[in-house]
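Cont'd.
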Amino acid sequence: MYYFDLMNFSKEITHWYLQNKRDLPWRKTKDPYRIWLSEIMLQQTRVAQGLPYYEKFTEAFPTVYDLAKAEESYVLKLWQGLGYYSRARNLHFTAKDIVTNYNGEFPNNYKALLKLKGVGDYTASAIASICFDEVAPVVDGNVYRVLSRYFDIDTPVNSTEGIKKFKELAFEVIDEDDPANFNQAIMEFGAVQCKPQSPYCIICPVNESCEGLKNQRVGMLPVKLKKTKVKHRWFNYLVVVSNQSETLLEERKGKGIWQGLYQFPLVETEKAVKDITLHQSAIKDVLQIENFSITAFNKKEKVHKLSHQHLHTTFWIVETTDNLKNGILLQEIRQYPVPILIGNFIEEFNF
DNA sequence: AATCCGGGGGG
DNA sequence: CCCCCAGGATT
């Protein structure tokens, strides 16, 4: 009976998928390069947000060789706005790795795929199943939701126990005859039908055997451990405007957010700056100029929200007649990869 | 086991 | 305001 129900579940989900799947470009290919590209892009990212980036990347880099030989800053530029920029850096690293050490061919199984930088359990399973029909179950946010509801399991999905338990469950339910379609089916089902808010239980193909629905617990599942609270930071960007139509940009290096992206010279403070003239010497130090006048671009600080940080940001316009060291031409500023916060300012200020 | 890492969309 | 999203790396 139990076996019959699992069979019923997997076949129903796959059947639902074949009837209802969205027409998406990465569903027209089994090229491991393109599947890999789509999977990296869609990590923690909605299909609607990732789609235009997939189009841009496949256009700019039709093959892994094209991606491998690109400048990293250009890869980041195309990635700009998609977030989690380590994905883009690892993407570029792995493209070079594939060309250099794998003769341009992606590994054809889960275990070997897992060795690639930026490829974890989920992505290795996705590529192995979709491209090579390996029985490797994927467990993403959609799968956690579908399985926790269908089997009425309240183990936190982001706990060590939950991760283990749901992976085992995914192994039990996967359709071994068609892992490629089943994996995509259960994710699509979670995204479109068994969605986080207001799932369509009334028309659900497995609503008669769904334990969560029977117990009226669908709205409480999945259970997640709560995340840490946000940290507040105060950013003062120094937007230099020289009379030679130049400005200054710096690359963010080391640890922390936006690694490899560019920004205006930054003075970070412990709290909101009330009088920027108090920081006169720090500004001279950072910008290496002597004569300037400074005014706030935004009176009210702009709060840029990241998952774990709120950035209270003020853009200060620094006008100078001095010659800039390492200045960049204003007409070339859009070539640099920048965080959305900076990109929005550039568009608004328009120099 | 916790924490970090973006940005956007929806209720 | 909150939560969630075709997760992975680091500490």
